[in-house]
Amino acid sequence: MEIHRSILSRYVARLGCALALAAPPAVSAQPAPVAAPAAPAVPTRPNTALIPVPQTPQDGGGINANVAQSFQTRHQSYVAVARKGGIDLLFVGDSITQGWPSTGKSVWDATYSPMKAAAFGVGYDRTQHVLWRLQNGEGEGFSPKVVELLIGTNNLGGRNTPDETVEGIKAVVQELRTRFSEARILLLGVLPRGGANDPVRKEVAHVNQAVSQLNDLDHIFYLDLGPKFLGPDSNILPGLMKSDLLHPAAPGYQVWADATKNILALLLNSPGTGK
């Protein structure tokens, strides 16, 4: 019996060895594939046309220390005018609006002074600067019947995209609606500038088409003066702009006044305007 057990043991041992030799080699576990690292998120550039700021030399586009100081000086003078009140018609904008009491003085004195008008325009201003001015004293202390807004040209030309500029203009309109809830807003399209083939003309057209949609014929009224300044070849008519083809000359301000005369009369005498 012990012999049989010995033989069986040796057989099982030999069988186990044979099975071990015949068994396929163990497959080592493969490591899980490593996922490629996610690409870093590209930071979204904020739309500066929406962020209220005063002019500073960091703005570029011709704004140096002297220009920034002039901005503050002019702003404070407008705040003083606002505090006095008695404004029925308010013009808001950049250097084109600033030019009313100077280049357009004769037209201003004859047409707008009798209307209790004020022009709050600052050279080099963009939508973000107008927002800051309104929020820091120029948008309080009086209740105009009509606000005439012309802004946006200084945002274009590489400083902001046309779509960013549109959003900036919308923000200014909303700020005016908030601060002067009883006023009608006459929103003017950005004026044409440069020659007929100037690339910025396409930007101006894009902006004007977009902001024209704000026209609700209730509180906001859109008017494009551009066709009044252009000839059949799409160039600016001689004499209406200064040599920079950006700022109106005295005859250009007369064209502006003539083009807005009827709608201003209607808006100024509309029931519910002002307080």
Describe the protein's architecture and organization.
- It is a single chain.
- The protein is of the alpha/beta class and 275 residues long.
- It has one domain (57-268): Rossmann fold, CATH 3.40.50.1110.
- It has 9 helices and 5 strands.
- The chain has helices at 2-22, 65-84, 95-98, 105-112, 127-138, 162-179, 200-211, 226-229, 250-268; strands spanning 89-93, 117-121, 146-150, 184-188, 220-223.
- The chain has a 5-stranded parallel sheet with strand order 2-1-3-4-5, sandwiched between helices.
- Helix 6 (162-179) links the parallel strand 3 and strand 4 (184-188).
- Helix 2 (65-84) packs across helix 5, helix 5 runs parallel beside helix 6 (162-179) and helix 6 runs parallel beside helix 7 (200-211).
- The longest helix is centred in the N-terminal third of the chain and has 21 residues, at 2-22.
- The termini are far apart.
Number of distinct helices: 9
What structural class results from the helix and strand content? alpha/beta
How many structurally independent domains? 1
- Major beta sheet, strand line-up: 2-1-3-4-5
Please count the beta strands (DSSP E, at least 2 residues each).
Answer: 5
- Describe the main β-sheet briefly: 5 strands, parallel
Q: Which spans of ≥5 residues are poorly predicted at pLDDT below 50?
A: 1-28
> What is the 3D shape?
globular
- What name does CATH use for the topology? Rossmann fold
The termini sit apart by: 123 Å
Q: What is the second-level CATH architecture?
A: 3-Layer(aba) Sandwich
Output the helix-strand order.
Answer: HHEHHEHEHEHEHH
The CATH homology group name:
SGNH hydrolase
**Amount of helix:** 40-55%
CATH class term = Alpha Beta
Beta content: 5-15%
Radius of gyration over alpha carbons?
Answer: 35 Å
- Rounded mean pLDDT score: 89
